[in-house]
Amino acid sequence: MERIIIHWTAGAHRASVEDRKHYHFIIEGNGIVVKGDHPVIANAGTLQSGKYAAHTLNCNTGSIGVAVAAMAGAEERPFRAGAYPIFPTQLDALAVLCADLCRRYEIPVTRHTVLTHAEVQPTLGIKQRGKWDITWLPGMSSAGDPIKVGDDLRARITDRLRPLQPPPAPPAPAQPAATVGWWSTFIAAVARLFRRT
Predict the structure, then answer these.
(1) What is the pTM of this model?
(2) What is the pLDDT of residues 99-112, one digit of tens each?
């Protein structure tokens, strides 16, 4: 597999029957990942009609389709997220899933290999029918530049790819103060004096 293309379903927060036909993975509103009807490998090599995940016009071969179940009723201008906006929980799950897919299929995280549907036309030069997913993320007041939003998602994915840092070493046990040794020696010397008398 060559790339991951990230979408929103333009539906509710649950993976529908239609969503499962078109995407390899769908992230529901609670962050649960639902597998689509077609395995990732179905999009490798020559595609067979009806037997692969058809998620991106003229860009399905070698592409893994990942979608966030959200954005039903959304409007680009003037912007309205609709009744089913993307949740932060979904973004966290998206970053984890995409990082896992990048590791598994050895896909580097670049603008050409991990991108949103909205980036396909400006980045890969493959015409798409006015797709604007994903150009809005939680915390944004309106739809933004697809490349900048894609960069934000790539940064989240890259963070999940970083190796886990080992926990810091525990502090060394406290050493007795130097005066404790001196005091013990003094006490022992006084005790010897009293034994002699």
Answers:
(1) 0.83
(2) 999 999 999 999 99
**Number of domain units in the chain:** 1
The answer to whether residue 176 sits within a structural domain is no
The boundaries of the domain holding residue 119 are 3-161
Is 181 a member of any domain? no
Collapsing DSSP states into helix, strand and coil, what is residue 94? helix
- CATH of residue 54's domain is 3.40.80.10
Query: Phi/psi at 5 (nearest 5 deg)?
Result: -115, 125
Phi/psi at 121 (5° precision): -65, -50
**Residue 10 predicted with pLDDT over 90:** yes
Q: How far is Cα of residue 103 from the mean position of the Cα atoms in its chain?
A: 12
Per-residue DSSP letters for 110-145? STTTEEEHHHIIIII----SS--TTS--TT-SS---
Give 3-state DSSP helix, strand, coil % of the chain, rounded to 5. Answer: 35, 15, 50
In a domain, 132, yes or no: yes
In a domain, 24, yes or no: yes
In terms of DSSP bridges, do strands 3-8 and 63-68 run parallel, antiparallel, or are they unpaired? parallel
Question: How far apart, in whole angstroms, are the C-alpha atoms of residue 60 and residue 48?
Answer: 11
Residue 97 sits at φ, ψ, to 5 deg, of -60, -50
Report residue 131 as tokens: 């797709």
Tens-digit pLDDT profile for residues 132-152: 999 999 999 999 999 999 999
User: Are the C-beta atoms of 33 and 49 separated by less than 8 Å?
Assistant: no
